[in-house]
Amino acid sequence: MSTVAGPSARLFREPDFVRLWCVGLIVFLVRWLEMLAVSLFVYEHTGSAFLVAMLGMLRILPMGLFGAVFGAMAERIEHRTALVAVVLISLMTSISLALLARAGMLDVWHLALASFVNGLGWAADNPVRRMMIGQVVGAARMGRAMSADVGSNNASRMVGPTVSGIIFAVAGIEGTFLISIALYLVGLYAALTLRYRSGVPAETGQGFLERIGEGLALVRGSPRLKGTLAVTVIFNVFGWPFTSLVPIIARDHLQLAPEAIGVLSSMDGVGAFVGALLMAAWVRPELYRRCYMGGISIYFAMLVIFSLAPSPVLAGMALFLTGFGQSGFSIMQATLVYMLAPAEMRSRILGLLSVCIGLGPIGFLHLGLLAEAVGSQWACVISGTEGIVALALTRNIWRKI
Length: 401
What we know:
Elements: H1 5-11, H2 15-46, H3 49-74, H4 79-102, H5 108-137, H6 142-192, H7 208-220, H8 223-239, H9 246-252, H10 258-265, H11 267-282, H12 288-308, H13 312-340, H14 346-357, H15 360-374, H16 376-393, H17 395-398
Helix pairs in contact: 2-3, 2-5, 2-6, 3-5, 3-7, 3-14, 3-15, 4-5, 4-6, 5-14, 6-10, 6-11, 6-13, 8-12, 8-13, 8-14, 8-15, 8-16, 9-10, 11-13, 12-13, 12-16, 15-16
């Protein structure tokens, strides 16, 4: 075993890291299972690519609305308790949707509400679960811990859409929610058996808004944090939203059936998983910035190529490379923020990271309107091109990372 890979392997000898990693894997897997099934259900019932994009938007919206709030709150709440509450709420949401589907009463507005509720849990992930990962493994191993955590997300992107497409074809959307319930029960057990307790710091006299303001002031005064968060905004406005239209492009442009749509949609997960493994083994801290910026550049270029691909094979290759690029970006995103922020303010800055991710609804709205005007395929081409232009125009900000 190499000296680089050794510490990564030893992470999985720490029971609490494994539990936190397991909760993340479950949440990620359910997210990808449901995203494809919900997209197909909504498109079949409405024929609207705009509504499909809006459902994806609602999963991101809570980050923008509540990310900073959750970051400040996380400093005053015991983290394990908060994590259990998040998993429990997600479990109850899936149970409700499964019952509605079983009764034949499931409607688009139910899925919209559930997407928003699940988005609240996503908004809490950075300042709660990932903050706990850093506390359990220490700052020196945070990069490798994030490689493992994002790698599990990417593995779920590799498996989730494929499985979801098969389940949807065989058992409809009800089957997807039943699988989600089973998975959430496993995640709830992992959260309940955590031994680590963050504790609650002594009251400092700082008000809630004052703590948020202090975090904003730190970002304004740090060119490296400012650059990192600026790139996050560009990715989530012009890049990430296109994933909601992948099933639509696969169905309308490439003429694929649900099972094949699931396989194609999983290809970016395959690329991201491969990228995460490579970074966990070989990437050193001095290369973090290059992985961050190189990853997002590859992502935008391949987004455009995927949208224009004339065949499923070429589209799959392009999606593989979007995933490969995203792995570098997403691993280094949380890692850079965690390492650049002072220890006592990490929850707040990770909360602000969630806010930047939560600006994605602007991109989903933008992409949805474009899809209605020029079609899903050309909407993704335009959005990816805009992302490349935005990176070029902000070079003076992100080069300081």
